[in-house]
Amino acid sequence: MTSLQDRDTVIRLIGGYMVSDAIRAAVHLAVFTHLDTTPGMRLEELAARTRAPADHLDRVLNLLRYAGLIEQRESGLHNTRLGTVLVPGKPGSLAAFAENFTSPLFQRAWDHLETSTLTGEAGFDREYHQPVYDYLSQDTGANTLFNQAMQEEATATAESAAALISIGEDETVVDIGGGDGTFLTTVLQTAPTATGIVFDSPAGIAAAENVIARAGLTERCASIAGDFFAAIPPDGTTYIIKSVLQDWDDEHALALLSTCKEQIPDGARLIIIGNFLPDVYTDEAAVGYLTDVCMLVISGGRERTLADLTALLDRAGFNTAELRHQRLGPLTAVELGPRR
């Protein structure tokens, strides 16, 4: 007979979406922000701040306590270390990331996980009858939130990723699929004579000019809109693809890499940066397995092992015998072309 403890464990797993929804509600109600600005707040005061009845709010707070995001001390309610990660504007915040990926827009795509598993069709495509990036290009609000979520992710990894590469004097760095420029501006801060180009779709670079300006790099960095499956800027010395290939299935990933092989100038190099899955399952790669299935549902993409990437590079015509790998924490940089 199944033990009650095992049943409780499975019930907690089934209820995972309830915790996600509680996080989204708490972010919307600014629970984590209120507890950050006023630690030790009493339930009644927090209820007044959020305009939620204290009884209802307390029931949601119980889920957040269970999730390890807030705690009750003698002095009152406090964010835990994990809860602080959900305070908007804090270094390392995932508030927009949480709001984006728990939103009804994306949750409805997950309703089609079974179909995605059987067919490989993105659940988002099935729900909305168009790919996610086409949808975002038409919905300014959704695109803004998505870009904010991507900026949080890019900010969290930018310094570590930048440390994986060395940029020489007077280089031109092209960040393919570079979004709002968060990563490229970090790279250029380490190379005071280099210039850069953020290259992405019009929706992808919507906030890039502001990010570049805030970094004080308007004289050295530009943003260019285009379709990286068709063409990439021609004048770079280093081309970077960071956390982009995972968004696409093998057919599209191969198309992007083939464009790079055909159009990257002689003497330039290509660097691919990402969180690659291990060849054999390990619990330590849990976040990678989560994002892998997320890619299946949202865009039809996938996380890959280094062997998977090497196979795609071979098919695109690159000389993979000259691949160079460098790893820092969960990130790995794969470099092809002249070493500088």
Automatic annotation (TrEMBL):
Gene3D superfamilies attached here?
1.10.287.1350, Vaccinia Virus protein VP39, Winged helix-like DNA-binding domain superfamily/Winged helix DNA-binding domain
Ranges where the O-methyltransferase dimerisation domain occurs:
12-87
Identify the Pfam families for this entry: Dimerisation, Methyltransf_2
Keyword Transferase found: yes
Q: Name one GO molecular function term.
A: protein dimerization activity
Organism domain of life: Bacteria
User: Which residue numbers delimit the O-methyltransferase C-terminal domain?
Assistant: 110-319
GO:BP terms for this protein? methylation
- Keyword line: Methyltransferase, S-adenosyl-L-methionine, Transferase
Tagged with keyword Transferase:
yes
Q: Which PANTHER family match?
A: O-METHYLTRANSFERASE CICE, PUTATIVE (AFU_ORTHOLOGUE AFUA_4G14580)-RELATED
Name of the featured protein: Methyltransferase
